[in-house]
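Example record

The entry below shows one chain as it appears in the dataset: sequence first, then structure tokens.
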Amino acid sequence: MVQPRFVRPMQSSPSTDTGEPTSSNLYVANCGPAVGLSHDAIAAVFADFGEVKGVYAADESGVRVIVSFADPFSAKSALEALNGRPCPDLKGRSLHIRYSVLQSASETQVNDCVPVSLVDSELNIPGLFLIPEFVSVEEEQQLLAAVDARPWIVLAKRRVQHYGYEFCYGTRNVDTKKPLGELPSFVSPILERISLFPNLDNDPSSLDLDQLTVNEYPSGVGLSPHIDTHSAFEDCIFSLSLAGPCIMEFRRYSVSTWKASSADAEKLGDSSCIKKALYLPPRSMLLLSGEARYAWNHYIPHHKIDKVKEKVIRRSPRRVSFTIRKVRNHPCRCNYPQYCDSQQQR
């Protein structure tokens, strides 16, 4: 069954000249499966205001939905009663609601299903390399045991650990004046193996890796599109996947995105960006360098099931990634100024 598609919420409520609503669809933020609210539970709450035809994911975040009513007056009643207020029947979450509009058939012909490649060469992105089985099954278990024996920092949807320097999500950078010490000994074999990584022609000093972020992703949780801040880290970014697989999507926009999300880029009319996707199996090591590191957003869709070459792959209960980088102590002088915070701020 094909799911209906809806446009982004309108800035003002659609209405006739008499003030009557003309849309029976509501965009509802801050509720969804990612925060423990099923579509059935959401439908039951909104059904108090009229017949609900369906509840659909508004995007891949898991925290935004479309509630489609049988008539626009029911939608108006729900919006006026629930918008901006905590809802006791939805775990007390404050809902942020706007009208939304069903796309026409011609508008939904865009193919937003990105084919997934199994090998890095199929993407043809300079500087992107993937090595399967970078660690053995035994090494994988040892690494997982090492991080599980240490304290986790709990974020909204995932858990993290930082070593060397703490990555500050608010600024998307690190504070070089507050080092956390040397990287833990359990990553020493990984660092030694990285030095033998093929296709490396970078400045040796950029491979003196000193920052590690460990991420634990529960099933269904992904990562928003972003480019690692140019001024924060040097050229090579290594990411080791453990415990489970995922799809990583790569997006290149023509507009500057160094201080904006890719969603903001699409609002600027760049929704036709280049999109490519790669399957990251457990124990594989991904290297982003050069163009792949500086010019392409990387993104993990918020899915519990991925489709790879006509095969459906269910994500494991957890996926753990080791992202290893070298902190930059000078302005970035890369060849991609439109994406570079150092060069845009001059």
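Notes for this example: The chain is about 15% helix and 30% strand. Confidence is low (pLDDT under 50) at residues 9-19, 104-112, 265-270.
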